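Hi there,

I know you've been waiting on this one. I reran it after we fixed the sequence typo, so this is the corrected version. Both the input and the resulting structure follow.
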Amino acid sequence: MKFEPVTIKDIGKALGLSTSTVSRALRGSYEISSETKKMVLEYAEKINYRPNPIALSLKERRNHSLGIIVCEIANNFFSQAINGIESIAYNRGYHVIISQSHESFERESVIVDHMASRSVDGLLVSVSSETKDYAHFKQLYDKGLPIVFFDRIVNEINTHKVIADNFKGAYDATEHLIQNGFKRIAHITSAPYLSISEERLEGYKEALRKNNIEFDEKLVHYCYHGGMIYDEVEEALKKVFKQKQKADALFAAGDRLTTTCMQALQKLGKKIPDDIAVIGFTNTNLGELFNPPLSVVRQPAFEIGQVATELLISMIESKRPVTDFQSKALQTELIIRDSTSKIKASK
C-alpha cells in the first residue's frame, strides 16, 4: 500500500478554495483574511497536514538539512556536541545527517562528496586525525557551501570556528599535577598536526615553563588514531615506562585517548596514582566510577555544538555573502579527583 501525503490541492478541494489561496493562508500572508486563514489552519491541523520538504527545497533552494562529520559518535565529547547541534537544528527547522570518519582521511573525503551530492545546506565538521590536506573542504567552500569547523579546526579556511580553550585546559591540568608534586609529566596526545594537539601541547609546555621545569620531548608521545587503536596507546605507555627517568604523572590529551590509557594502565598492572598519576581531557560521565576516580579537564561539548550550529545557520540564511567570521573558544572545567592525589613525601 503506497503512502499518499495530503497536499494543499487536497485542502483546497475540501474547503472550496484555490491552491494559491491555501498556500498563502498557510504562510500567513496579509492578502488572505483572518477568517480564511483560521479555516485553513484548523483544517490542516485536523488532517495532520505537513508541508512537502522536497517542494519546499525546490522553492527555497534549501533542503533544511545539515551535515555533521565527526570521527566517532561513541566518543563522549562528540555525542554531547551532537546533542547540542540537534537541540538548535530541530528548533530552527533543520534535520541533521551524521557521518563518522573513523579517523580516516579517505572516508572523510567520500563523506564530504556524498553530503554535497545530498544537497545539504551546510556542514559542521571536526576533521579526522589523518587529515592534512583540506582540498575536499576548500573546493566545496569556495563554491559556496557553508562550512563551520568545531573542535578540530582548519585554520587554512576562513570561516567560523568553535573550540574549547585547549591551551588553558592543558595548562590547568599540567599545573595541577605540578602543584601536587609531580615533575616528570608524560603527555600522550593525538596526531601532531591536529589543531587540538598543537594547542594542548602548547598549554602543557607553558605550565612547565612557568614552573621552571625543562620540557623533555621524550615525554611526549603521539597516537595518530586518537586512542581508537588500543595497541597504539599501549605502545606509547610502554615507552613512557621504559625511560631511565620514569614519568610520575600522565596527561592524556583526548577523550578516547584518556579512557584507552586507563584501560592500558590496568592491563600493564600500574597502580594509579602510586605508580603514575593520571589526568585526562575527557567528557566521560563515568570518571567517578574509575578506580581511583579520574581527574579530568571537561569541555563544554553541548555548548560548542550549539554555538557552531547557530553560526552555520546564520551563514545559510544570510541574504548576503558572509565575510566576517568568528573564532570562539569556550572555557573548560578542571575536575580534581583521586587519580592525581598529592605525591607522597617518601616517594
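Quick highlight: The CA atoms of residues 99 and 111 lie 7 Å apart.

Best,
R. S.
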